[in-house]
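hiii, so i know i said id send this last week but things got crazy w the move. better late than never?? heres the sequnce for the chain we talked about at the cafe, plus the structure i predicted for it. fair warning i was half asleep when i ran it
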Amino acid sequence: MGNQIIKIAEDSTRSGFYLFSGQVLSTIILAASSILIARLLGPTLYGQYTLALVTPQLLFIFTDLGISQGIIKFTASLRVKGKLNRAIKTVKYGFIIRLSTGIAIFALNFIFADSFAAILLQRPELTFYVRIASISVFFQAIYSTVNSTFVGFDKTEYNAILTNLQAASKALISIILVVLGFEIFGAIIGHIIGYVAATVSGMLLLMIMLRKLLRHKSKGIDDSRSDIKNLLRYGAPLYVSILLTGFIPLYRNIILAFFVEDIDIGNYRAAINFITLLTMFSIPITTALLPAFSKLNFTNDSKLGRFFELANKYTSIVVIPLTLVMIIFSKEIVELIYGPTYTLAPIFLAMYCLVYLLTGFGYLTLMSFYNGIGKTKLTLQMNLISFLIFTVLSPVFTSMYKVQGLIAAFIMANIASTLYGAYIAKEKFKAEFGLRTIMKIYIASFISAIPPIAILHLICLPILLRLITGLSLYLVIYITVTPILHIITKAETKSITSIVQKVPLMKIVINPLLKYQQKILKTK
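okay and structure toks below
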């Protein structure tokens, strides 16, 4: 790897690790608190609490305007060009826009809370709670903007701090207020305070960071009108993409309600909950890659194409085997958490996971690539293809094959959009996929699955022991097969070792695996 690519890879690895660790811990905190709050409130009150948050969460989508990703892209690229002042100005304009939209959406939700409760939720008695919950929209808009700024400035350790502060504050205050007898009101106030605490802390951290950065002089002419125009032009296609993707879950629920029985919907929802395990890996990866591609955007095509190939390769090395593990052990995972009554959930989970097998063809890297190089219209085109195919196919397939049909429509829509994005990336931007290596990753992942599958069918063990044994065996075989198939080379193990040294916690886990693979490569 070239020095510049190594430096960007170091930053991306560091960013991805902090984003991942922050998301994992916050997910655990929120999951535990949700279970406790659900038990304290009971099913009826917990259902009303959930419904009261629907409108603010739905309207929050309209506050972004694509500004969050615009901040990440422009702060990353302007810093690399030495235009720090303009990067900070871009942050300022982004905040002004998000503040304005946050206030507007909060006012809309607050004023029309009675209409939303009566018409959208069909529960006019929840008007007061919907109105109170609308306060969270404003703080959530600022919170997400702060987090985007930290990603753009490669300070994702602050993201991890804020994410966990938000989760911990929400959990603590909600539980205390519910225990004290405030019930739904207490749970909603806890939800709001979580965002307030994270937003205030984030703004303080941001001011400290920017004050330090402003001590250093940077070149670049201040062009406020141009910067605002670029930010809005960049964000507009992303905003439409966000609206399209945000509509899909609502549309999906309507299709399920029309064609599927309640018991199947319950199994489907249980399966979807486990997809969070994959998104905890995928979201940090795609978020960290956006500033990385932004930094390389102004360099020659060969560097950009080479970095895309490396990003896609290492994303595939992590996500593809993880996907197969979820598919193989879907029955054990569901039964361990939900018990044996959710008989269809393992099938739905295994089917849904198939979409992540598209990772080798750019499923998780293409949109970050296009957003990083400023081609957000191509991101919109990919989302539009996926949206249209799913919208047309899902009612037809669901009416014929129930939940399996719905998942099949979703997979087909993503296959079409991913292949389109991959074709454009290769033809117009000379992006390389390294298909020979990608095929080897698929082969290694499938080979590693054979012994665990044999264990599941031939040896009778308790569920937890079966799961631990199978996962351990899969990991050992996979990290052994990858160097044997020359998926990873001696030079790459050295580069990766150098990269992970910048993240102490990551180094503890990764270094032993790399040393083991280096020994295999040396013997081979």
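btw The radius of gyration is 24 Å. thought thatd interest u
miss u guys!!
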